[in-house]
């Protein structure tokens, strides 16, 4: 199940699998599969031995691509897939509208994978590659918004900063520092009342919609420190150890968790949100999720302004921490006109998104970075032993670039992508800003997009 190294050297022996676990080795995770083996073999159902699976191909389930099935079993599986019931129930919800926030991408167009982006870059000639690098640097110098540092810790969040919270709630200082600064920037920008430490006044009560909510601990902080009572958590995945139980124990809290992809969410269909003013928040909205979120919020804001309806939910402001720019997709990006004005075409945008990962794969002088580097030392050692002759063309050029230069180019790409989003918000009539909300040694993914609707 394991391939010999390309340079012909013998690979280090693999550790023995834990007892009662599948013997399949996952090279990217550098561990064995965690599933239990089938009774008649040492492997689980997802990883049968080569001898029995050579002629069998696994394909993504069309109901939920997060899992795969054998191609010959696909038709039978679709009818009994455990995710089918959830998919059918979701399609019947009034807030479900397929692709409403997709950004006008071509119907049925698949996402461009990181592997495809990498292959596209590697097909460039040397002249084309350096021309693209020059274009990115020129676009950054002329159009990227200069970000200011805004590391804020409001008084209202003192008990969280001091760890004086319910200890049944998972508490990690690194994440708390990020959440506190997001909330602090919201207060500074006028989205939250200053110094609030208890229940919000009835007339000032706002709903909060957390996009990409995960376990919901950013909203937990808002409920604890600012008395937020009307809470909506949007998340397509199912999580354990959620904040929901703790939130529901707070008197007067109304909580609704919407298990749906942001791409398909129509906020007008959320009955409990109708007629409410709300804030949209998100901590690390991966890749295109940021674009889908701002389009989700601004679709309805535009409709409210046009129709002057009183049965609409009304956006008051948003605070979104962006991340994972390498996952961004042209078809979902909110401000294609901004990129086109810079002469950046679709293929070049996808190359930029691939370059953006260089911003977070270097040494940021943080303990996390050092630990990540230590954990991959064996991989780097093996790569260092490979002769340069194995790398040709663009791959050789990229590997020859100094780490600092790659790192700087990665940050330029992230800045350009987020600047386009900022300008898109401003074009919709919002007062908006883009700030660095935590130091890079806390997280190199430290861009915060914050905006307020003009009254």
Characterization of the model:
With 455 residues, the protein is an alpha/beta fold. It is 37% helix and 13% strand. The chain has 16 helices and twelve strands. The chain has an eight-stranded mixed sheet, with helices on both faces. The chain has a two-stranded antiparallel sheet with strand order 1-2. Helix 4 crosses helix 12 (346-356) and helix 12 (346-356) crosses helix 16. The longest helix is centred in the C-terminal third of the chain and has 25 residues, at 403-427. The radius of gyration is 24 Å and the shape is globular.
Task: Summarize this structure briefly.
The chain is α/β, with parallel strands linked by helices.
Structural class: alpha/beta
Q: Helical segment tally?
A: 16
According to DSSP, the number of beta strands is 12
Assembly context of the chains: single chain
Provide the spatial order of strands within the biggest beta sheet: 5-11-12-10-9-6-7-8
> Between the first and last Cα atoms, what is the distance in angstroms?
62 Å
| Rg of Cα set | 24 Å
| Main pleated-sheet profile | 8 strands, mixed
Helix content: 25-40%
Mean pLDDT: 83
Order of secondary-structure elements: EEHEEHHHHEHHEHEHEEHEHHHHHHEE
Query: Could you name the ranges where pLDDT drops below 50 across 5 or more consecutive residues?
Result: 1-6, 301-310, 363-387
Query: Strand portion, in percent?
Result: 5-15%
Based on Cα principal axes, name the global outline. Answer: globular
């Amino acid at each position: 199940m394991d391939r010999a190294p390309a340079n012909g050297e013998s690979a280090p022996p693999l550790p023995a699998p834990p007892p009662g676990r599948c013997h399949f080795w996952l090279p990217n995770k550098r561990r064995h599969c965690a599933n239990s083996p089938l009774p008649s073999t040492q492997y689980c159902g997802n990883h049968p031995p080569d001898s029995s699976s050579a002629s069998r191909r696994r394909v993504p389930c069309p109901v939920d691509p997060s899992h795969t099935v054998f191609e010959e079993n696909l038709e039978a599986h679709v009818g009994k897939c455990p995710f089918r019931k959830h998919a059918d129930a979701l399609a019947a919800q009034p807030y479900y509208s397929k692709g409403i926030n997709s950004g006008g991408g071509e119907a049925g167009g698949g996402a461009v994978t990181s592997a495809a982006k990498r292959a596209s870059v590697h097909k460039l000639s040397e002249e084309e590659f350096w021309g693209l690098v020059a274009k990115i640097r020129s676009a950054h110098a002329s159009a990227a918004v200069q970000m200011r540092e805004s590391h804020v810790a409001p008084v209202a969040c003192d008990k969280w900063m001091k760890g004086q919270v319910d200890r049944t709630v998972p508490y990690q200082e690194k994440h708390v520092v990020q959440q506190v600064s997001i909330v602090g920037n919201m207060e500074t920008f006028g989205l939250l009342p200053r110094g609030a430490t208890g229940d919000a006044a009835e007339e000032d009560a706002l709903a909060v919609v957390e996009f990409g909510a995960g376990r919901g601990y950013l909203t937990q902080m808002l409920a604890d420190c600012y008395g937020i009572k009307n809470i909506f958590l949007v998340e397509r995945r199912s999580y354990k150890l959620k904040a929901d139980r703790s939130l529901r124990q707070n008197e007067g809290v109304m909580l609704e968790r919407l298990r749906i992809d942001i791409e398909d969410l129509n906020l007008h269909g959320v009955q409990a949100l109708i007629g409410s003013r709300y804030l949209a928040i998100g901590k690390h909205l991966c890749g295109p999720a940021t674009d889908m979120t701002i389009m989700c919020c601004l679709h309805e804001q535009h409709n409210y302004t046009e129709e002057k309806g009183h049965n609409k939910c009304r956006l008051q402001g948003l605070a979104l921490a962006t991340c994972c720019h390498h996952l961004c997709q042209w078809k979902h990006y909110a401000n294609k006109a901004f990129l086109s004005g810079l002469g950046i075409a679709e293929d070049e945008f996808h190359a930029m998104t691939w370059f953006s990962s260089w911003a977070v794969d270097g040494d940021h002088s943080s303990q996390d970075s050092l630990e990540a580097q230590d954990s991959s030392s064996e991989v780097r050692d093996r790569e260092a032993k490979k002769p340069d002759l194995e790398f040709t063309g663009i791959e050789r050029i990229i590997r020859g670039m100094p780490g600092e230069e790659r790192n700087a180019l990665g940050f330029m790409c992230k800045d350009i992508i987020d600047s386009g989003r900022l300008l898109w918000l401003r074009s919709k009539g919002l007062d908006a800003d883009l700030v660095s909300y935590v130091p890079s040694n806390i997280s190199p993914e430290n861009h915060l997009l914050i905006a307020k609707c003009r009254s």
